[in-house]
Amino acid sequence: MSDARSHVRLPTERPLRVRKVHSLRTFLWLARGWSDFMDAPLVGLLHGIAMGAFGGLIMFLAWDRFWVLAGALSAFLMVAPILSTGLYAVSRALLRGEDAGLATVWQVWASLDGRLVRFGVLLTALGTGWVVSSAALITLGVKPPVTTPNDFLMRVVLAPDGGLFEIWLIVGGLMAAPVFASSVVAIPLLLDRRVSVQKAVLTSWKAVMANPICLSLWAAIVMSLSLLGLGTLMFGLILVMPILGHATWHAYRDLVVRDPGEAD
């Protein structure tokens, strides 16, 4: 009996099938994101205002402690995908020809889907880890402490001896890259299908490995537009975040294959 049990293997999660797409599809995702935003502008604007207000609150609380602010704002971008769950639901409803409004968003959040909650907690933990790492790098590497954006620019970014800013970027990239790879299609997938968090993450990684150039371009577009939003004192986020949220849904639909007969 014990020998038989020793040969029993537990089932392992396997990623869903993904497809390779042309790199220029990224701009089609943006165009479709804009179209969804125009079809449900109230939902998009409310999401954008909420995210902009949250970013503004971070900036207000940490403005004179820029050693925290630099990491906090970038960590905010790391958790933004889970905050866009309602936008994915609206894009799905629009695709199905259903009513897409605040009720659609409320239905998603009220469900308290444990998988989405767990993924959100994971992203929050990773974002917090980056805030702590960023603060440690800046406080330990620069004396006296960096307290203002001008301090960060002059004594970190434009420091004559250099090095610290490059290290800060490298550490941030090493933390952000796996987060992006794990979440680029995972959250829309969790919303759309009854799969485990593990399968969603594995599928997201598989999509990245199948489309390295396309999704590297997509990451650059997301980062550039997000920085544009941050650089306008958060006002740009009011438009940037809903468009990127809707576009992410269309990226997922392009990249993850649906089995024949599977409902939209």
TrEMBL record:
The chain crosses the membrane at residues 42-63, 69-95, 116-142, 167-191, 212-245. Keywords: Membrane, Transmembrane, Transmembrane helix. It holds the Pfam family DUF2189. This is Putative membrane protein. It comes from Aquabacterium commune.
